[in-house]
Design brief:
With 446 residues, the protein is of the alpha+beta class. It is 35% helix and 24% strand. It has helices at 24-35, 62-67, 116-129, 176-180, 204-211, 226-229, 253-256, 263-271, 277-280, 329-349, 358-366, 368-376, 379-385, 387-405, 413-427, 430-440, and strands at 17-20, 40-43, 58-60, 77-87, 93-98, 111-113, 133-135, 140-146, 149-155, 162-163, 167-169, 192-201, 217-224, 234-240, 244-252, 284-294, 305-306, 309-311, 320-321, 326-327. The chain starts with 16 loop residues before the first strand and ends in a 6-residue tail after the last helix.
């Protein structure tokens, strides 16, 4: 079986395609192109795929199952339960939990907790087995242009120029190569979120007892409100692996710069909330990471196709976060797959200009990826407009309404109901305000 290497392989510097980055998008593209018979090289700046990649913890796997023998993939637990909790700073918590029986049957809604270091290395190996070359510990410093067309890359290795008619840019959210080459603009602050995450190790029995899990079942827990990340658009999460918990926060950088707390402080405050602390107590921290997440939606995406190059995954801004749907891994793989197909067809035709590569953007536009981004692209702007209501007033009003509605005293229940209703309607600006907010956020559910 071919092996990844950090040693410069014997080659003449000429390939059919170069992939910058061996994450999900890059490996999907390399695997797809290698299976089409192209001579492909993947360049990864880490000492192995996944060492530089950070994410929450859930891998969405429909396309990966089609591309690989997924049973052999290094997986932790499938998502058997999802919970969404509203937290207030005062310690209130309101939780909605979902455990559809169908999620416990194969293919488990294609939702698995994984460790990116293990998973990305395995996924890149699938591309290598298909015939791609993987070169690690290699940083791409620039793109090579010939007659105005991208025709390869410069690397930090001696004699490190590589040539290919097409370059797939799968470099992640910090898209320095794309930006340096003028193919993408730096993301505006309002279009980026910051995440701080730690992985804590526990006994397997502790995790299963604490979260009421059995066998391979896992829980994905999401938290919103000022008890999660303070006065910011964002939230917290806990994902259960076999012997570790991924615990983190994600919130707007626009809010972060106006917060006296560091992301570490926000994470510590989240872990100390009364609804969270019992779930994460103890354990031993084995990993800490912080990273940026592109959240600008369709309006912030760069042009995906250029003469001799395509942009995929996080570098293309393919992340969906509307509070209920938190996706990116599936979009990265899907974009890599469509990019790989388009490049293979273009190389076969003998042309790799933007027009010849346009099938990538067309196919992605016609896919569920752009349909989802376009449908939910409005949400983060709306959430920023209603930040005080969504993340401060609403969690507190819900907790107060619950307290009133279930109050045990010598008053009639009709009075409790009236008081609870008054609190909720008041938080939404009266009945007219409630109607307006229901209309504004209707697209979340239709």
């Amino acid at each position: 079986m071919p092996q990844p290497t950090s040693e410069t392989p014997n080659y003449d510097g000429e390939f059919d395609a170069i992939v910058v980055g061996a994450g999900l998008a890059g490996s999907a593209a390399a695997l797809t192109m290698a299976e089409e018979g192209l001579d492909v090289i993947m360049l990864e700046r880490g000492n192995s795929p996944g060492t530089k990649n950070v994410f929450g913890g859930i891998m969405f796997t429909p396309r990966i199952r089609e591309l690989t023998d997924f049973e052999d993939a290094p997986k932790e637990r499938f998502v058997a339960e999802k919970t969404f909790s509203m937290l207030s700073e005062e310690g209130d918590a309101t939780e909605v939990s979902m455990q559809p029986a169908a999620w416990k049957e194969q293919p488990h809604n294609d939702s698995w907790m994984v460790l990116r270091g293990d998973f990305d290395e395995w996924f890149a190996e699938q591309a290598v087995e298909a015939g791609a070359t993987l070169l690690t510990e290699t940083t791409v410093t620039d793109l090579v242009r010939e007659d105005g067309t991208i025709a390869g890359v410069e690397t930090d290795r001696p004699d490190g120029r590589l040539h290919a008619p097409t370059v797939v840019l799968a470099e992640g959210a910090n898209s320095l190569v794309s930006e340096g080459a003028g193919l993408a603009k730096p993301q505006e602050r309002k279009d980026i979120a910051v995440s701080a995450k730690e992985v804590r190790k526990y006994d397997r029995e502790t995790i299963e007892d604490r979260f009421h899990l059995t066998d391979e079942e896992g829980a994905a827990m999401h938290y919103f409100g000022d008890g999660a990340v303070g006065d910011a658009v964002g939230g917290g999460f806990i994902y259960t692996n076999k012997r570790t918990l991924a615990i983190g926060v994600v919130y707007s950088i626009e809010d972060a710069v106006h917060d006296e707390r560091t992301p570490d402080d926000v994470l510590d405050d989240f872990k100390s909330h009364p609804a969270v602390a019992p779930l994460v107590k103890g354990g031993r921290m084995v990993e800490y990471s912080a990273h940026a997440i592109p959240e600008g939606g369709p309006d912030a995406m760069p042009d995906l196709v250029h003469d001799g190059a395509v942009i995929t995954g996080d570098a293309a801004g393919l992340v969906l976060n509307n509070g209920l749907h938190l996706e990116g891994t599936n979009m990265a793989v899907e974009s890599g797959y469509h990019a790989g197909k388009a490049v293979a067809d273009a190389v076969a035709s003998g042309r790799t200009d933007a027009a010849a590569l346009a099938d990538y953007e067309d196919d992605l536009t016609d896919s569920w990826v752009m349909d989802n981004l376009n449908h939910y692209g409005w949400f983060l702007d709306a959430a920023a407009e209603d930040k005080e209501f969504l993340f401060d007033d609403l969690p507190r009003a819900i907790a107060d309404a619950e307290t009133d509605y279930f109050r045990m005293n010598d008053e009639p229940k009709t009075r409790h109901t009236k008081s609870a209703r008054k609190r909720l309607v008041g938080a939404m600006g009266g009945y007219l305000g409630a109607a307006k907010k229901a209309w504004k956020y209707r697209k979340m559910f239709i």
